[in-house]
Design a protein that fits this description.
Blueprint lengths: L3 E5 L2 E5 L6 H5 L4 E8 L3 H11 L3 H8 L6 E4 L4 E11 L4 E11 L3 E6 L6 H9 L9 H32 L9 H21 L1 H12 L1 H5 L3 H64 L11 H24 L4
Parallel strand pairs: 3-7
Antiparallel strand pairs: 1-2, 1-3, 4-5, 5-6, 6-7
Helix pairs in contact: 4-5, 5-6, 5-9, 6-9, 7-9, 9-10
């Protein structure tokens, strides 16, 4: 079944009709149409371009993936590019799914690069909108942006929980193992990728206010303002989490260096303690006779010397917390 909807005077009148019927509905003055394309071809976009008067640059952007989140304003329409995000808590990896939209006065066309972009959740937002549906395309656009920004917020919250767990284990006596270090690296990498799709959303929503009179003067303006606030909070939260992960990595490196220094102090201390009896017994192992050589008192004197020296060194090193 085609993903299509027809709204008339704020009421959902039809859905699931063939995309070929969209042109007939666009001829009706009080109709607002939405339809969805998943991984469309050039021919598919060329067909709707003739109907909606889409700009060639917008068509190119929709066909070429990995565009930055943006809102381009043309004479007859707007082109929107956004990313929905999903976070895997087990691996610490981020998945971002790209989607585009052509926004005209009475039509919204969504173009998805994958089924992972849950258009069903967008439709549920529209269904729960109630009387707001009378605002037509602005209402549909709000539901799309609200879903996208909510996925950003969910990812940021999940990452925050992961980072809190890393912080709790930061000052344990044992150093972080390879798994924890790998998790920290994956989180930092995911935060960098998340910022690339979250930070531009502030500009996208802000452009709707500055360069679109329909959104600015509509009753939906407070709802778009709410989306903008969430986008700003998600971007600022992402920046703060990225700094936290950087601090955690630096703390791991500092702790490893401190641990290495402690080990070196202990090894050096024991080496110094062992060196004294080694030196004394080494002298007595020479072929040249020394005082007390071959005599019981010489043996006990040398033994007493290195025992005393070892005890003194041990006490001094212990006092300085080297052992």
């Amino acid at each position: 079944m085609a993903r299509t909807r027809l709204y008339r005077k704020g009421k959902l009148e039809a859905e699931g009709f063939p995309i070929a019927d969209v042109s007939d509905h666009l001829g009706e003055p009080d109709a607002v149409v939405w339809f969805d394309l998943c991984t469309p071809t050039r021919a598919d976009l060329d067909a709707i371009s003739e109907e909606l008067g889409l700009h060639p640059l917008a068509i190119e952007d929709a066909l070429h993936a990995s565009q930055r989140p943006k809102l381009d304003v043309y004479d007859s329409h707007m082109f929107l590019n956004v990313y929905a995000t999903h976070f895997d808590g087990d691996t610490g990896r981020l998945e971002s799914v790209e989607a585009s939209a052509f926004v005209t006065e009475r039509a919204l066309v969504t173009v998805r690069t994958s089924e992972s972009f849950s258009i069903d959740q967008v439709q549920r937002r529209w269904d729960s909108g109630g009387a707001l549906a009378e605002h037509g395309v602005a209402f549909l656009l709000h539901g799309l942006l609200d879903y996208v920004v909510d996925t950003h917020f969910e990812v940021v919250e999940a990452m925050d929980d992961q980072i809190e767990k890393l912080e709790e284990g930061l000052f344990h006596e044992t150093l972080p193992g390879p798994d924890e270090q790998r998790r920290t690296f994956e989180l930092r990498k995911s935060l960098v990728n998340l910022r690339r799709v979250v930070a531009p959303m502030r500009e996208v929503v802000n452009t709707l206010f500055r360069r679109n009179e329909i959104i600015r003067d509509s009753t939906l303006a407070p709802y778009f303002q709410d989306v903008y606030d969430h986008a700003v909070r998600a971007a600022e939260w992402t920046d703060s989490l990225r700094d936290l992960v950087g601090n955690i990595r630096e703390a791991h490196m500092t702790m490893a260096n401190n641990k290495m220094n402690l080990i070196m102090k202990r090894v050096t201390s024991w080496a110094a303690i062992i060196a004294v009896p080694t030196m004394i017994t080494g002298f007595y192992g020479q072929n040249v006779p020394y005082p007390g050589s071959g005599q019981p008192w010489g043996f006990w004197t040398s033994t007493g010397l290195w025992v005393v020296a070892a005890v003194v060194l041990y006490t001094q090193f212990k006092k300085r917390d080297w052992l």
